[in-house]
Amino acid sequence: MMLLGHVATAIYPGSFDPLTNGHLSIIHRGLTMFDRLIVAVLNNPRKQSMFGVEERKALIREAMPDPRVEVDSFQGLLVHYTRKKGVHTILRGLRAVSDFEYEFQLANMNRKLDPDFDTVFMMTGQDSFYISSQLVREVASLGGDVSELVPPNVFSALREKFPSNNGR
Ligand code: ADP
User: Fold this and answer.
1) Which pLDDT band holds residue 98 (cuts at 50, 70, 90)?
2) Most buried of 39, 43, 103, 122, CB within 10 angstroms?
3) 94 and 103 in contact (C-beta within 8 Å)?
4) Which residue minimizes the CA distance to atom 9 of ligand 1?
C-alpha cells in the first residue's frame, strides 16, 4: 500500500531461533500489506538460545534478500524499540488457539504502554501451522529431518550444529 508518498512499515518481532518456513510465510504475506518490514530479533540475555543474535540475523538476511526487508535486533521492551524506530504497527503470526491468549495479552499490554501501538495478526496456512522454532530445535537436535520446516540455509546451519547426525 503506497498512499501519497506514505510508506507503510511494520515491525515483525520474534526470537527467530531459528527462522522457520512459518516465519517466512508471514514475512511474504506481510509484504503484500506493507511496503517495508523490519524483522526484529529479540535479544534476550536471560533466555538461552541455540543461535546467537548475529547468527539469527544473518540467517534471516540470507533467506530473505529483499530490499523491502530490514533485519535488526532489539533488547528490552518492544514499545521502546517501536518508538525509537517511529513505527507503531507490529506484525505477528497466529498458529492455533493456543497462541491467541498470549498474543491477546501482549497486544493489550503493549497498547497500554503506548496508545499508538497496534498489532496486525496473520493466520498461518495449513502447511505451516504446526511449525515452531522450539520444535525445529528439538527435532533437529535429536536427528530428525527438518528440511521441509526451514529454509535451506537454516537447514545447513542446523546440520553444522549437530554434525553427529546428517539431519535425515
Ligand atoms: P516461535 O514461537 O516459533 O519460537 P517466535 O518467537 O520467533 O517464534 O515468533 C515470532 C512470531 O512469529 C510470533 O508472532 C509467532 O506467533 C509467529 N510464528 C512463529 N511460527 C509461526 C508459524 N509456523 N506460522 C505463523 N506464525 C508463526
Assistant:
1) confident
2) 39
3) yes
4) 14
- For atom 22 of ligand 1, the residue with the nearest CA is 22
Determine the residue of 95, 123, 136 to mutate for testing ligand 1's pocket, defined as the one with the most ligand atoms within 8 A of the Cβ atom: 95
Residue 102: exposed, middle, or buried by beta-carbon count in 10 A (0-12, 13-18, 19+)? exposed
Weakest-pLDDT range from 54-63, 117-126, 150-159: 117-126
Question: What is the model's pLDDT at position 167?
Answer: 43
What are the residues whose beta carbons fall under 8 Å from the beta carbon of 66, sequence distance 6 or more? 31
Mean pLDDT, residues 126-134: 90
Calculate how far, in angstroms, residue 154's C-alpha sits from the geometric centre of ligand 1.
16
Q: Which residues line the pocket of ligand 1, CB cutoff 6 A?
A: 14-16, 20, 22-23, 26, 92-93, 95, 99, 124, 128, 131-134
pLDDT of residue 96: 79
